[in-house]
Amino acid sequence: MADPLVIAHAQLTTQDLEALYRYMILQRLAEDRVVKLYQSGAIVGACFTGYGHEAIAVGAAYALGPDDVASTLHRDLGARLVLGMPLGYYFANFLGRTGSPSRGREGNLHIGGLGPRILLHTDFIGATIPVAAGVALGFTVRREPRVAMALFGEGTLASGEFHEGANLAAVLRLPVVLVCWNNQFAYSTPLAREVAGPIVERMAGYGMPACSVDGNDVLAVYAAAKDAVDRARRGDGPSFVECRTMRMRGHSEADDAFYVPKPLLDEWRRRDPVERFEQHLVERHVFGADRLRSIRETALADVDAAQAWAEASPPPDPAELSERVYCEERPWP
Questions:
Q1: Could you say which DSSP state residue 205 is in?
Q2: Which SS3 state, helix, strand or coil, does residue 148 take?
Q3: pTM of the predicted model, to two decimals?
Q4: Are 113 and 324 in contact (CB under 8 A)?
Q5: Strand runs (DSSP E) across the chain, as ranges?
Q6: Measured between alpha carbons, how far is 238 from 222 in angstroms, rounded to an integer?
Q7: Are 90 and 111 in contact (CB under 8 A)?
Q8: Confidence of residue 124 (pLDDT cuts 50, 70, 90)
Q9: Do residues 118 and 69 make contact, with C-beta atoms less than 8 angstroms apart?
């Protein structure tokens, strides 16, 4: 593939580059805040972040068109923001407030009902691939020039659902883009104990083109995802994009990741995706340090406002406990 920096800069305006940075820093700051809330006891249950995944979530989702959809998971906050999710939903879901899409009934991991572009999060991680394939099949049947994207970790490739969904997409040449964040560990299992050989080589068995990119470079992710999205929209079938990165925190905030070698974390810490993009923008004279600081301050204000909005939202009414268990005609007010 051609140089992703050349491709990205040819396709993206200054406004696009600013948006990429704004979404990345918004994910970083929002997740930092949620971790603090979890540590203070304001959030109960599990707490997951996408620290170090910002370039993948934002770069991949930014490649989608206005009518495309994505199946996102627990490390993909940036993708949800790109696709239009209000940040207040994120805090309300973690805090169990009625301002969340499920009106405080759902766990912090499963945030759904986010609008027509974001498919419902399912805890059966591999199932996101057949879900995306099914949505893409609908697009094909209705002759709509739309694309479905699924984001997931490398451990997903060990599930039967991945095989079923990928095989269906390939055989029917569905408009699907599979974006894999290879973050080196499926919980505590290192990649070498999960997969024999390069991940991308496995896609040949599905007759599916695949590429591997630096997942800490938002422009490289965008360029690869945009190529795959364009290919899918042309009717050329699915593609697989491996984004090499590192999970910089534990699987959840309850996991201290003692099993990860410290030198490995130190190596990847020097490749922080947010800091790298900041450096790139300054070195290419896209923005100065003052402009980046202003964007960060605005993002921090957005986080403050989203948290305040969520905290002002009341807890769920116990009288609603039996509602929305089954399909109902009456939507939430």
A1: G
A2: strand
A3: 0.93
A4: no
A5: 69-71, 118-119, 148-153, 176-182, 185-186, 189-190, 210-214, 239-244
A6: 16
A7: yes
A8: confident
A9: yes
Give the phi and the psi of residue 118 in degrees, each rounded to 5: -120, 115
181: Cβ contacts below 8 Å, ≥ 6 apart: 53, 56, 75, 151, 152, 153, 154, 215, 243, 245
152-182, pLDDT tens digit by residue?
999 899 889 999 999 999 999 999 999 999 9
Task: Tally Cβ neighbours within 10 Å of residue 45.
Answer: 12
Token pair 């024999």: residue: 196
pLDDT score of 32 more than 70: yes
Cβ neighbours for 316, distance < 8 A, ≥ 6 positions apart: 96, 97, 98, 103, 104, 105
Tokens coding 160: 């039967």
Please, are residues 243 and 221 in contact by the beta-carbon 8 Å criterion? Answer: yes
| Average pLDDT along the chain | 91
Return phi, psi of residue 45, to 5°. Answer: 85, -160
Structural domains of the chain, ranges and CATH numbers in brackets: 4-312 (3.40.50.970)
